[in-house]
Design a protein that fits this description.
Length: 138
C-alpha cells in the first residue's frame, strides 16, 4: 500500500472518530498516529489533509449537496460523505496531487470501506467537480 493511501485511511478513521465521538480532529489523529510507527511524510500528509477537511467540511458538504441530485445530505452514508469530503478537499486544495489520482483513491477507499453501489455515487460527484474545474480553466 502506498504512503499516501495509508495516510488517507488514517485520515478517514480520524474523521470517523470525530463524527462519532465528537473529539477534535487533532486528538483523533494523534491517537491513531501514536498507535503505530509511521514515516514522517505520511504523518505530514495525513495532518494537512485531516485539518483541511475538518476546517472546510461545511463548504465541502455544500458541494456534495449541490451534486447529489435527489439525495438529502443526511441520507448519504457517513463513510461515503467522509470519503467525498476527502476527495473534494484534495481536488480543490492539493494541486500537487493529480485530479485523477484524487478520484481513483477515493473510489478505492469506497470499494474497501463502503457498499458496492457507493463507488458509482462517489465517482459521479467527484467527476462532476473535476469536469467543472477543467471547464473553468479552458
Amino acid at each position: 500500500m502506498g504512503l499516501r493511501r495509508k495516510a488517507r485511511e488514517v485520515v478517514l478513521q480520524a474523521l470517523y472518530a470525530c463524527e462519532i465521538g465528537e473529539e477534535p480532529i487533532e486528538q483523533a489523529l494523534n491517537d491513531l498516529l501514536s498507535a503505530a510507527e509511521y514515516e514522517e511524510d505520511l504523518v505530514d500528509f495525513a495532518r494537512r489533509l485531516a485539518i483541511r477537511v475538518d476546517r472546510e467540511h461545511e463548504a465541502l458538504d455544500r458541494i456534495i449537496a449541490e451534486r447529489a441530485v435527489n439525495w438529502d445530505l443526511g441520507r448519504i452514508a457517513l463513510i461515503d460523505k467522509l470519503i467525498l469530503r476527502m476527495g473534494l478537499c484534495e481536488l480543490l486544495h492539493f494541486p500537487d496531487i493529480p485530479s485523477k489520482v484524487c478520484i481513483n483513491e477515493s473510489i478505492e477507499m469506497t470499494k474497501k470501506y463502503s457498499s458496492s453501489d457507493s463507488k458509482r455515487f462517489v465517482n459521479g460527484i467527484l467527476d462532476s467537480v473535476y469536469r467543472e474545474m477543467t471547464e473553468r480553466t479552458v
